[in-house]
Every structure is written in C-alpha cells, then in structure tokens.
Amino acid sequence: MTTPRRLILASQSPARLGLLKQAGFAPEVIVSGFDEDKVTAPTPAELALALAEAKASVVAALPAARDALVIGCDSVLDLDGEALGKPADAEEATARWKAMRGRAGTLQTGHCVYDTASGRYVSGTASTVVRFGEPSDEEIAAYVATGEPLYVAGAFTLDGRSAPFIDGIDGDHGNVIGLSLPLLRRLLAQLGVSVTELWAPAS
Question: At CA 76, angle to CA 72 and CA 81, rounded to 5?
Fold first, then answer.
C-alpha cells in the first residue's frame, strides 16, 4: 500500500482542519504568518483568492513543505460589494451584525493548492449565499460577548453559536465553514491528484 502524499494546511483555522479530517484526510498544519493587510483587490472574491494564493505560496516556499501539497484558504463576506473579514473588536462585530440581520451576503472563499514537488499551483473561489435571520439587539450583544465572532470571517459561523441566527444558505455548506471540499477535489484533479489518493489509511 502506497503512502499518501503529504498534505499541508496553511491555516490556523480549526474549522478547516476539522472539515479535512472528517473527509478522510490527515493534514499537517503550518501557519503562514502572512500579513493579510498587505493585500488589496478590486472585489471581495478576488481578495479572498489573492489571500489564499499568498498564504499557500508562503508555506510552499518553506523547507518543511518539500514534496507536499499545500492548501491555502481565505474567506471574506461580500456584503454590498464590501469585503468583510474578521471584525477588529466587539464594537465592530456588533455593528456588523446589526447591518447584516434580515439580509443576505455572499461568503467568498479563495482556495489555492500548491504542489511543491512540481512547482505548479491552481486556485479558485467558491461562493455561497448566506441568508441572515433577525436576532434582537440583546441576542447580538450576548453573541458578541462570547468572543466567537472576533475569530471568524464575516463575524459569524455555521458551526457555532451564531447558527440559530442564520436562516439558510444557497450553495456549499463547507465553504461557509471555511473550505469547499468539492472545489478542493476539482483543484487537485487539475494537478493530476485524486482525493482518494490522499485519504489517510483507515485505523
């Protein structure tokens, strides 16, 4: 039985790591440490993609990533054409939720897969429409007080305390959590790699 290629996640997101593990992968984690403020782009989708490519390329250049497949991802919420990442503080998170409630935004997640063995990389963006409910001011205050929205793009997540405040989505559920597994499969295929080759051996 052949050993699967090394898979490296260039992200500190426990949600992304969890998605990959649930899908049968056993990725290593190397955080890029890339300064996201250095990147600008004309649209939220292009920004998410540029950030994902930057994170993947930084980690791919490290000696520790030799002969590995490096996955870089970054998510932003597109609300009226504005790219909303992680809120800076509780005040911003509160204002964000008051602006989002009762409306819909598009969660854009850039994905980049870098094959350090060949030097090739491929990238793409997945988009999912998120329909926000109408939490009260008191519910928003209680949610912000948990601290959770300060650590996630758009100040919300589908797999946490804000789940009751989201009425529904149109598109890939995993993409909103942080990583689109169908898009990842297509990107890997462009590099000549099947997802089944990367599954960790069953225990």
Answer: 135
What is the phi/psi pair of residue 141, to 5°? Answer: -60, -40
What is the reported pTM? 0.94
| Mean pLDDT in order along the chain per 10 residues (203 residues) | 83 95 96 88 97 97 97 96 95 97 98 97 98 98 97 93 97 96 98 95 77
The rounded distance, in Å, linking the Cα atoms of 143 and 189 is 40
* Per-residue confidence (pLDDT) for residue 85, from 0 to 100: 93
For residue 140, give both structure tokens. 């928003």
The single residue of 74, 78, 115, 172 carrying the catalytic annotation is: 74
Report the alpha-carbon distance of residue 181 to residue 189 in Å, rounded.
12
Q: What 3-state class would DSSP assign to 147? A: coil
DSSP 154-195: GG--TTSTTGGGEEEEES-HHHHHT--HHHHHHHHHHTT--G
Residues found in the chain: 203
172 is catalytic: no
CA–CA dist 145, 191 (Å, integer): 44
Helix 90-100 × helix 137-145 angle, to 10°: 140
Give the pLDDT confidence score for residue 52 in this predicted structure: 97
